[in-house]
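Q: What would this chain look like folded?
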Amino acid sequence: MPVRRIGPTLVFVLSLGLILLFQSTLFGPGSAAWAQICDPVGSPPRFGCQWSLTLCDWVCPICDPYGPAPRSSCTWDMNLCNWVCNGYTGTEVTVSTTKGPTQDATVYLRMSALCTATGAGEFCNGSFPVFHGMTTAQKCQAIADAIANDCSSVGYVVTMNDCPLESTLVASNLSCPDTAFALGLSNDPGVFDQTGTGPMPDGETDRISGTSKSCSPKPGTVGNLQLAQVAGGTDVQLTWDDTTNATDYVVFSDTSPNGSFSTVAGTAADGASGFSLGTLSGNEYFLVAGRNSSCGVGPKH
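A: My prediction, written as structure tokens:
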């Protein structure tokens, strides 16, 4: 009797063992079903890459340099499939005009990238006149206007315009935000090899610096924005909660709640003291972002 009770159990265990053996044979390494669990992790590192089920990795075509280097110090990155120029390229590029031109001339602007997501070339060229006595704020605004007029069609925009106050702007590429691009200024349309801080032949000086998405530490997002009437109700004070990794704060304004908020209304040391907006003449909207020297301006809120 005990044997009869154990027998069926043994048969069941053996049957289960056969099923498991059958499954491991059918779905073992090298089989099609086994390969299906090797799914791509994230998006392709750049355009043209294909996911290999055999290698369980991205396989990308050879990427040769396109055209000459934007400047002699640039190197070609085979992984990014793009020129990398220290202090010259970035996913955001800051341009600060520190000295105005000392003679009349033409300034040429070039912005260029090869989008790592699509492989599309994003190149543009612009130009504008400068003159002796032109202020740094005017020169900065001329660069901003050239980007808007000559480079917006390929995705480049000015995301921070602080020309009136600090003669500084920040440019970004909205059509391909994860790819670093180069921004060059020159008095020669065929040569974009000026140093990042040295003067151009017409005497002006612009400091160009790029920021990557991997920079650290990044400013956090400010919170608890508040508007309060001060000075007997004639002025308005904007305050907020300070965020992490911010050395100061930038206040952006726009006449539309859905605008680009690229215009800088001013800066502040902290959110407790905030920023005085003065008397508002009409509808105006504001966002605040933290800023530091490593990563520039953080998210606007």
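The chain has two domains: 75-211, 223-297.
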